[in-house]
Each structure stands twice: as structure tokens, then as C-alpha cells.
Amino acid sequence: MLYALITPAYNITSTGLYLNNGLYPREPLYRMAAPAQPVAQNLTDPEYDTTPIAPWPEPREWMAEIDDALLGLRRDLHHRFLLGGVAARAVRIECAGALAGYAYISAEGHVGPLAIAPDADAKAVVITALRCALEGRPSRVSTIVPGRADVVMRAVLALGLRIEEPYVLMASRPFGNWGNYLAGAPGFL
Predict the structure, then answer these.
(1) Is residue 119 situated within a structural domain?
(2) What value, to the nearest 5°, has the Cα angle with vertex 71 and ends 66 and 76?
């Protein structure tokens, strides 16, 4: 069985508790954020398309395939919860009709969870998701970027996002392709 959670990296009391219970630091994560206006000015135009994700359970299989490819597990309960009205918006991202990923976007401009298909252009997927976030006219945008997601980190830094808060993914065993998966929020992978 896999146990995993995200916690603030500076919270050494909680981290110690998790360590004593078999959860070890597996991936550094960074909440990256910026005011919306400068990000909008720096965005390029990716040639990726978005379509709203239908209510659960219609998207079950294609979402399970990408989750399994990236994380090694299905997230059916999470998707059912998020697609039940918690996320302000959920989009399927495609390039020339091929699945490139999916993104959940809050009304406040937070992007995540964001899954990038293994063969997709990570930069284009992230830019597409941020463009969708800006359509809601938030005052700022944010996302959580894993430490090993070099392409994503370069893309968001170029758009003006900066580290707002450091987190750490704690897990009972290694798992996931953290170059292509951006978590939603601490406590919710």
C-alpha cells in the first residue's frame, strides 16, 4: 500500500512525525505564484486546444490512463470529487486531437492538479493551462511545481512566477513521474 502526502517543507514537527511513521521525503515541491497581468503579458500562444471535461464518470478511462502512466495509480475518487463541483474549471488539453494532459483550475487562478502526457510538450501544456486560468480574470496565478520538473520550472520562471512556499512530498515508497505531474494543493495530491 502507498501512503503519501504533501506538507510545508519548513514544518519540521510534522515532517518528524511522518518520518517516524514510515513516510520519507520523496520530492521537493514549490508553490509558484505571480500577479496575473505580467504573466498574461509574457504568455506565448501554444498550439494546444482545450475542452471542458465532462462530469464524472464520463472521463474516467482517459484520465485513469494518464494518471496510471504518470503516478502508477488511478485517482478515480479524486476526480469524482473535483468534477463534482469543487474545481471551478477542468479542461482536457490536446494537440492535433491527441491527448496532451488535463488541468483543474480554481476561480482564484490556481492550476492543479495538472497532468502532462508523457509524450506531450510540457511547456506548451503548462502555458495552455495558465492561459485558461487567466480567462477567469484572477488577480494572480499559481501552481505547484515539483523539483525535478525542469521544463515546467523554466517555463513558469520565464512567465514571472516565483517561489511562494516550499513543500515536500512525503511517501511510504518512491512513485510517480514528477516531471509531468503538478499536484493540486497540500493535503490533496
Answers:
(1) yes
(2) 65
Residue 177 lies in a domain: no
Question: What total of structural domains would you count in the chain?
Answer: 1
In a domain, 22, yes or no: no
Report the CATH number at residue 39. Answer: 3.40.630.30
What is the per-residue pLDDT across 69-127, written as a single tens digit (0 to 9) for each?
999 999 999 999 888 876 679 999 999 999 999 999 999 999 999 999 999 999 999 99
Note whether residue 123 is domain-resident: yes
> Residue 183 CB: number of other CB atoms within 10 A?
24
Comparing CA positions, the residue from 153, 159, 178, 158 lying closest to residue 168 is: 178
Q: Which residues contact 35 (CB under 8 A, 6 or more apart)?
A: 139, 140, 160
Please state the pTM of the whole predicted model.
0.94
Q: Which residue has the cell 525542469?
A: 150
Q: All 3 cell numbers of residue 42?
A: 509574457
